[in-house]
Amino acid sequence: MAKVNLKKLEKTYPNGFKAVHGIDLDIKEGEFMVFVGPSGCAKSTILRMVAGLEEISGGELWIGEKMVNDLAPKNRGVAMVFQNYALYPHMTAYENMAFGLKLKKIPKKEIDKRVRDAAEKLEITSLLDRKPKEMSGGQRQRVAVGRAIVKKPEVFLFDEPLSNLDAKLRVSMRVKITQLHHSLKEEGQTATMIYVTHDQVEAMTMGDRICVLNYGEIMQVDTPINLYNKPANKFVAGFIGTPAMNIVEATIEIESGEIVVRIAQNFSLRLPDVKADKVRKHTGKKVWFGIRPENIRIDPMGTQGDVKVVEQMGNEQYVHLVIEREQYTARISSEKEIHTGHGEKYNFVFDMGKCHIFDFESEENISL
Q: Based on the domain organization, do 108 and 197 belong to the same domain?
């Protein structure tokens, strides 16, 4: 196992485009770190820099106690699992998994042991004699993961490995990879993993910590629960969570001696004392007001809203509503069925103890 340290890491292409802007990140030994962000945020570029497949323009990259900026990929002690599996079509699963070890001239007996141990962990022992064309997408991806395991690398690198699978297979494979991480740690084997995905559900369910990226910069690095409950800025707040956090323009004002968030002329919400104290100095200023869908509920004492669309999800429903021309999404239990139709109105209460206020210019969370 090895830790991975990125120190002021930069990537600038020959045309002058700067993809990675001097990022600092410490990945602990045995940690499952997820890089997540929208397309074009440089998450795969950073992963390829760690792998040695992309040249480093500036800064330092350390794996364990060794700076690897100028080391060839084969000497870095990493194993990469690609999005498209990258299996040899003319080889069986066994041969694909053993191929890299044969090149290193590892004894046949040791190769056989490693391949069969990995196959058992991934439940693909029965597939070892099959070629890729005879396997499903999920089975091929497990073979690709097995090929990485047998190398016993310092660090595992996963580049959107589940994006080619259907929804059901993605769920089962993310569970399998998470279980693999735990079992490797328990056995004292290599378990440091860096996993790239654009799917924030994958990130939330798999990572020990998550690094949220945007335009080649780190927005926040934290545990999944802290990212969800304590987003550092408006970008993280809007990116993490399904459905997405409701974020609208507002103004901090004093009304009857209390600090309120004014969203429209006839719609203001009182802030509880703890949050009011934190945003008091922004009185009279524009801000971004954010609240998660589960923190909006139906209550006769609330503000009236027009229900436009209801998405039934089985145990819950996503209610899309409008209050004073602003649209919100509420996540409400299906025990209370919400109807839509012309003129349908319900009263909604916002749990202001769980709201977030972001500076209008910097977009930093000022309510934490």
A: yes
Look at residue 190 and give its three-state secondary structure: coil
Residue 350: name the closest of 269, 276, 272 by CA.
269
Beta bridge partners of residue 210, listed in sequence order: 34, 222
Q: Give yes or no: residues 216 and 345 share one domain.
A: no
Cβ-count burial of 151 within 10 angstroms (0-12 exposed, 13-18 middle, 19+ buried)?
buried
Domain span at residue 113 reads: 4-239
Number of compact structural domains in the chain:
2
Tell whether 190 and 333 lie within a shared domain. Answer: no
Tell me the C-alpha distance between 179 and 173, whole Å.
10
Evaluate whether residue 364 is within a structural domain.
no
Task: Write out pLDDT tens, residues 213-268.
Answer: 999 999 999 999 999 999 999 999 999 999 999 999 999 999 999 999 999 999 99
Three-state SS annotation for 123-146:
CCHHHCCCCHHHCCHHHHHHHHHH
Rounded to whole angstroms, how far apart are CA atoms 265 and 354? 23
Task: With respect to residue 114, please indicate whether it lies within any of the assigned structural domains.
Answer: yes
The tens digit of pLDDT for each residue in 332-359 reads 988 877 777 667 899 999 999 999 999 9
